[in-house]
Amino acid sequence: MPQYKPKNRLTPQTYIDGVLKGDRVILSRAITVIESNLETDKILAKEIIQAILPASGNSIRIGITGVPGVGKSTFIEAFGKHLINEGKKVAILSIDPSSQRSKGSILGDKTRMEELSHLENAYIRPSASGDTLGGVANKTAESMLLCEAAGYDVILIETVGVGQSETAVHGMTDFFLLLMLAGAGDELQGIKKGIMEMADMVVINKADGNNMASSEIARLQYQNALHIFPQSDSGWLPVVTKASSINHTGIDVVWEEVKKYKSLVVKNGYFESNRNNQKITWMYNNINDALKQLFYGSDVVKTKLSKLENAIVTSEISPVKAAEDIMSVFKDHFK
Amino acid sequence: MPQYKPKNRLTPQTYIDGVLKGDRVILSRAITVIESNLETDKILAKEIIQAILPASGNSIRIGITGVPGVGKSTFIEAFGKHLINEGKKVAILSIDPSSQRSKGSILGDKTRMEELSHLENAYIRPSASGDTLGGVANKTAESMLLCEAAGYDVILIETVGVGQSETAVHGMTDFFLLLMLAGAGDELQGIKKGIMEMADMVVINKADGNNMASSEIARLQYQNALHIFPQSDSGWLPVVTKASSINHTGIDVVWEEVKKYKSLVVKNGYFESNRNNQKITWMYNNINDALKQLFYGSDVVKTKLSKLENAIVTSEISPVKAAEDIMSVFKDHFK
């Protein structure tokens, strides 16, 4: 029986040529294929990716994160416009494993970066939807490759949700930017442990009006804190600055620091080694996800697991023995 | 063909009774069974663990880490003696995935805590040996259960190696103690990212002699840094103090803080929920290790993987497609 195939699909070569020529309409349609869960689209997507792969990679990839309310959209709008004024082509992608396309996140994304979305050299694409972080991250990372092949030379990848996706974004970008607000303490509740240590740069956002003094205090506090923490393999010392999207201050400094960073890591070899490691880790993450899917997706395992969790908590069985028991059930069933 | 069975093994019940009575000689011999890689010993070990499981858990488990040179052994000797003076029975275990029993680490451990090792209420056991961190961590965690069943009410688990094992120790303890030295900066190179944020307490060690002033500066710096970082689920704010094993100062404060911590987390329910989560995570870690062993241990996978890594780096194949290719090879082979 033939599988369902959407009518409005183009030939593989049309997608490939269109992306390589930088055609925005074709780029969008190619990303739609990548985001699709239909089997026929998955085959098509693989063919497109395989063909554009050699043309990908020529960009600086910047991850941007921060809790809701930190002013991410406004910052990205200001930063994006600055980059375009500098002659760059900017693509903005996002990762939000909790997003549901049908619930209006497209509309949300279009309206929240209004000015930027009308510029010729900006390409904005909301988060792909999906059930697993791994699935959503794959789609975003592959969309990033398409944008690069289409000539976008700065890719901004933002996390939209809270938690979880920061590590995924960190794993696919060259530079990781954390937006914070002044008034250390409460606003940190939303930042998960370990995120701070990933940051190549912390920007105290909304450093304007009544926040001027407290932003400078926050900047010094974070700067001191980050200097105490272990240095990254990149050899880069994270910087802390202030920015205001309203006053248009500090935006240019962010780009200057990104350029300094890139020049350092290209020189010391970290840029390339990190990219290679990211690609290999990407494969291993997919393998490990698939292995877990194979195991935890099987019915015999599901039934046994919840029983074992209870038995472990009540000390009826040791965790080591429980793991052995369920592995033998799985092996018997799989063979 | 019958398997090799060591001659000097006791009956299962002899181990079980001996451990539950707190017999140190039997305890040591039971741990030897747990650490053994012989199949007959593994079966025996499971029987012992299963029987003592209900008697385990009645201790406070303290993880202790810090880079080589920070004075861990001297600190643990001083801390252990303090606990024994307070009427506690103290067991000291360690995790060192790189340890090779034959290379003399037993001798090392016996001599480095000379005074403590002669005390009736102290039990010192060096790290189990093994090829994988998961394997070594299992053995240490099961030895910990035996020590608890034998009546030890404070378990100190130290990391001996650098890196890696901190997360394993954190995953099996209630309280995580990080030893540091004054002179922020260089000495941090050995501490991996993320470790600092696990700490419930940081002790600036060797706060004596010429280090007095710099230790106080370091204490303040870490205290400020830790306050900026996200709070733990336990509701506990990490404390930073100073200690000197030579001057016998600050050791009592560590124990006071551990007691404060325990009283807080018992009250707010974190102590129990964390223990339960740790047990369940322990099972999942074992399952995931076994799954990886099944996959990465297979010859077809090994051969294909190194080829794929090269193809990924040279952009001949996308990481997603590479993962799919190798999963289908594995599935075909396994069936």
UniProtKB/TrEMBL annotation, chains A, B:
It comes from the Bacteria. GO terms for molecular function: GTP binding; GTPase activity; kinase activity. Keywords: Kinase, Transferase. GO terms for cellular component: cytoplasm. Pfam families: MeaB. CDD domains: MMAA-like (cd03114). Belongs to the SIMIBI class G3E GTPase family. ArgK/MeaB subfamily. This is Protein kinase. It comes from Siansivirga zeaxanthinifaciens CC-SAMT-1.
